[in-house]
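Case 368 in the screening queue. Each case pairs one protein sequence with one candidate compound; here the compound is guanosine-5'-triphosphate. For every case the pipeline is the same: read the inputs, emit a complex structure as tokens, and attach any notable structural observations.

Predict complex for case 368.
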Amino acid sequence: MSAGPSSSAKIPATIVTGFLGAGKTTLLTNLLTEAKGKRIALIVNEFGDMGFDGSLVDGCADPNCAAEEVVELTNGCICCTVADDFLPTMEMLISRDQAPDHIVIETSGLALPQPLVRAFSWPSVRNRVTVDAVVTVVDTAAVAEGRVAADEAAVAAQRAADEALDHDSPVEELFADQLVCADLVVLNKSDLVDAETLDRVRQSVAARVRPAVEIVAAERGSLAADVLLGRASASEDDMTGRAGHHEAHHHDDDDDHDHDDDHDHHHHHHDHDHDEFASHVIETGVFAGLDDIRDKVAAAMAVPGVLRIKGAVAVAGKPAPAMVQAVGPRVETWFARDARAPGRLVVIGLSGFDLSRIEDILRATVAA
Ligand SMILES: Nc1nc2c(ncn2[C@@H]2O[C@H](COP(=O)(O)OP(=O)(O)OP(=O)(O)O)[C@@H](O)[C@H]2O)c(=O)[nH]1
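Case 368 output:
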């Protein structure tokens, strides 16, 4: 479907999805080199961190790299933060004097593309931006072996580490959702399979995408920029047939849902609890300083079963809240530029972790 004349002035936005390890970073790095001359704004999901950020932001020092700027979303689940995080980012980009020529959004593959595409119907965005294409990157070698990703355990861990993600549906359903929402499927890592296997994977993928969706094979994500960009799919106007499992599930009890209530989206839709995982919000007091936060959060992370701690807390004598992100042994703290309501930490872990012990550690602050 081509964008009509009235929409020709819209900024095209490409959504790239695919599981960890499929080759999104490789594909985007290649694209940003290919697309020089275009001003591209890149929006990456937090989980892009696991390999993206460093390499790509550094890559932007490269004069060959077309990325004008890299914007990082603060939460791993776009579908839960469309109103709070994604839309303000888009509004910021399109209100620039020099708006980008193209916007590329990389998602983790765990936050599904459907709610993101729907967000382009939001009033402040719909007249200025259109979804050029949803590009789904597939690990051909993994799929040939009956898996969705080369390292499914890593995908599971990535998912477990973010309380904002849906933990209910099997990972195969997320894969099906990525495929059904695609305007273009890239069968990446084609170098790892023989021609016959590639053909078999192509056929099985073709059976799982919408009619007429293009499927291209790639090695190291190497595709010409005009294969990836300029597809004018206007995906946001073409949601028919794209609905995934995840959405069908969440919409069962809310048929009237539309973008008007996206502001409340995560309050009434997503129940991210799962038997295997638990997340709890702990109200915290005022910490003595960043070292104090790091020590206490590290102690809480050491409690068996804890996978992740994140949030914003108050620090004595500081007007700005300190942001906290802890995954594994790494605890990061920094002062936020904008004043978010501090005083809450979300603790995510395997069900049954010792919450009261963690509360004792994290609540031992200088003031209540
Ligand atoms: N053999 C082979 N390896 C590839 C190909 N594309 C990517 N890789 C490798 O696969 C690994 C994962 O690639 P990334 O580009 O980091 O994939 P990604 O995990 O989707 O990206 P992020 O989730 O953003 O980190 C890296 O070691 C790449 O070098 C390919 O076409 N063939």
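Case 368 observations:
- The two ends are 58 Å apart (CA to CA).
- The chain has two domains: 5-249, 277-362.
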